[in-house]
Design goal:
Conserved hypothetical protein from pyrococcus furiosus pfu- 392566-001, ParB domain; 24 helices; elongated; seven-stranded mixed sheet; Rossmann fold; seven-stranded parallel sheet; alpha/beta; about 650 residues; 21 strands
Length: about 650
């Protein structure tokens, strides 16, 4: 047995020396990191005993003190010679492990989700050598002070997760993902998970990790937790225990591009105008494009969650679909599927659309994204698009409009007629783009009337009485719903004024020109630029975010407005079209302070889309999840702004 120990120690030492040399050549420290060298007392909020528990060995990365750290390479494999007392003790531990297992827990300090050994370095070394995945440990948490650092924010989200599911198995690289994990598993981050739920989760995650590493193989730079969450977006967790490894592996291969996209720091390619695509390709269009004609038309399907007669949003898309049939003179044929509000109805509609030989499928609500993504993985030769923004899925392109450009103009227009310095603003959901709309409206209004206040109400909360609220505040000028239902004609949309006698005067409204939007998307197929290598990458999602310059967003003004108001609106529009004017230039102030100083650059597209603050002249707040109705909840689960979604009361 002693010879076997010597041989195993020699093999472990060889591994350690290889790692040591590799680290030296790469300019890295060749020993396990020492926590005391990483932290100062100012970094620590407290040291909190956790409990004796099983911890993943791959998260054991260093030691608490310097001590024996030079006896190990950075992977905890030994480096001292075979004829040392250290090697003898290591061999005895190896024998104990092989005969009955190492029973005594190590003592480890956990900091930011990683473990640093205080007692038991050799036990860790032997356990890693024999290929164990976990080890028992008496854990003490070194709690960092809160900061605005992203890693710190993610760690505090982990602590919320740990309170209800005390395991270290899964870690994420992005904010909001512990909340999403809980939702995917039918749980939350307020109620402790049952032992059965935790056992099932750990078993499912273990199966996923095994198959993921075996079938994907290469290091994608993606954590197992991030990959697991992508899988759960498409498939129920129970499939990991019910389906064969062959089936699971096949699914993961199909998800490879989604895994790649998640690892890319610039994982969303945002195209602000159709001209950007043409500028990147620079090849004669007719050399690329497939030959479609009236005899062999390009077929595309539109799938709606409701009926155009009862939804102004769907009605707008339906007008766009009809425009395509007329505009392309038979070269493009469209088909629609209505009332596909459930996952089963949507999946069935997609299957029928594919059976009808449609080559492109549009789903017109963010809530349809999950099922759309499943279909895109299943039908890789079909082009799928979802009407949403800032969702990073490579298999599905998204499209949306820069509505904040129109809202900027409308805010200025509203301020010219609000003689009491009060304007009401009705928003629907706290999702990507909503806060840009609110703030650009508020900024536009304040540029005309510095004393104006924008009173914010939400239409998609359970107890919405926005009309009564505005009336009680003496508000007569309002920004209401953007569109009207065709079966319920009303003047209460866009910017309107309530007269003393209760009559409504329409003043202005934003316009979604969906026909123009769909025309330009389909042109990328007809001219062959849809799949052009210059614009399409396997590790990047493509989002179309077009605005007034592309003709997909506009503003219509009432003849009742004054000549000078119209002149002002036209000047603002020219500035937006030229790119010389933006509501998010210069100093920006929120309800809580200065967001951006005067001499800093314009907000980036990402900052505009993902903003979750309210301008300092807005009177109102962001609703909590408890206040939102079911329609809103379904939408924010897919497209909610991360800062909103991650709040403890959400």
């Amino acid at each position: 047995m002693a010879v076997t120990h010597s041989a195993d120690y020699t093999e472990a030492r060889k591994r350690g020396l290889r790692t040591y040399r590799k680290d030296i050549l790469a300019g890295r420290k060749p020993y396990p990191p020492v926590l005391d060298d990483i932290l100062t007392r100012d970094d620590i909020l407290a040291e909190v005993p956790v409990k004796i528990m099983e911890i993943p060995l791959d998260l054991v990365i260093g030691t608490r003190t310097a001590g024996r750290t030079s006896s190990f390479a950075s992977d905890f494999m030994p480096t001292l010679r075979e004829n040392t007392e250290f090697a003898y003790k290591w061999g005895n531990l190896f024998e104990a492990q092989m005969e009955e297992g190492i029973r005594d827990p190590i003592k480890a300090y956990e900091y930011m989700g990683k473990f640093y050994v205080m007692e038991g370095n050799k036990r860790v070394s032997v356990s890693k050598y024999v290929g164990l995945s976990s080890i028992m440990a008496d854990v003490t948490r070194v709690l960092p002070k809160r900061s605005d650092d992203r890693a710190n924010r993610i760690y505090y989200e982990f602590l919320d997760f740990f309170k209800v599911c005390p395991v270290y198995d899964i870690q994420f690289s992005q904010e909001g993902r512990y909340q999403k994990l809980a939702e995917r598993l039918g749980q939350d981050l307020q109620t402790p998970w049952s032992d059965e739920v935790m056992q099932n989760f750990r078993a499912e995650f273990a199966v996923f990790t095994k198959v993921f590493h075996e079938k994907i193989g290469e290091d994608l730079g993606l954590s197992d937790g991030d990959a697991f969450l992508i899988y759960l977006t498409l498939y129920p967790s129970k499939t990991l225990m019910e389906d064969s490894e062959e089936v699971l592996g096949s699914r993961m291969q199909k998800l490879r591009n989604e895994f790649l996209t998640d690892t890319n720091n610039e994982n969303i390619a945002l195209f602000e105008a159709p001209e950007e695509i043409k500028d990147k390709t620079r090849i004669l269009d007719f050399l690329r494009g497939p030959a479609y004609s009236a005899e062999r038309p390009f077929r595309c399907a539109f799938i709606y969650d409701r009926n155009p007669d009862v939804s102004a949003w769907i009605y707008g898309h339906e007008l766009g679909r009809n425009y395509l049939d007329d505009f392309f003179n038979g070269v493009v044929k469209t088909e629609k599927f209505e009332n596909c509000g459930s996952q089963a109805e949507l999946a069935s509609a997609i299957d029928r659309a594919v059976a009808d030989k449609n080559e492109m499928i549009f789903t017109t609500s963010p809530t349809m994204m999950t099922e759309t993504l499943k279909a895109a993985i299943h039908y890789p030769n079909i082009k799928f698009l979802n009407c949403s923004i800032n969702l990073s899925y490579q298999a599905v392109r998204t499209y949306y409009g820069r509505m904040h450009e129109a809202k900027f103009i409308l805010g200025a227009v509203a301020a010219t007629v609000a003689d009491n310095h009060k304007i009401g603003f009705l928003a629907d959901y706290p999702i990507y783009g909503t806060f840009a709309n609110i703030n650009s409206f508020a900024i536009g209004a304040a540029m005309v009337d510095p004393d104006v206040k924008i009173y914010l109400e939400w239409s998609k909360i359970r107890e919405s009485h926005w009309k009564e609220t505005f009336r009680s505040e003496g508000i007569r000028v309002m920004s209401g719903p953007d569109m009207i239902r065709p079966t319920e004609p009303s003047r209460e949309y866009g910017i309107y004024k309530v007269e003393e006698d209760g009559s409504i005067e329409s003043l202005a409204a934003p316009v979604w020109n969906w026909g123009k939007y769909y025309e330009q998307i389909i042109r990328t197929v007809l001219d062959g630029t849809w799949q052009a290598r210059e614009v399409r990458r396997n590790d990047q999602a493509m989002n179309y975010w077009w605005g007034m310059s592309s003709g997909v967003i506009d503003v219509i003004l009432s003849n009742h407005l004054s000549y000078y108001t119209k002149k002002m609106a036209a000047a603002l529009k020219r500035g937006i079209l030229r790119g010389s004017l933006s509501p998010f230039d210069g100093e920006l102030r929120s309800q809580t302070g200065v967001i951006k100083e005067e001499d800093t650059s314009r907000l980036s597209n990402e900052e505009i889309i993902t903003m979750s603050w309210l301008s300092d002249n807005v009177i109102g707040r962001i609703p909590t999840v408890e206040e939102l109705n079911e329609e809103a909840l379904q939408t924010i689960r897919v497209s909610g702004v991360a800062d909103i979604e991650g709040k403890s009361d959400l």
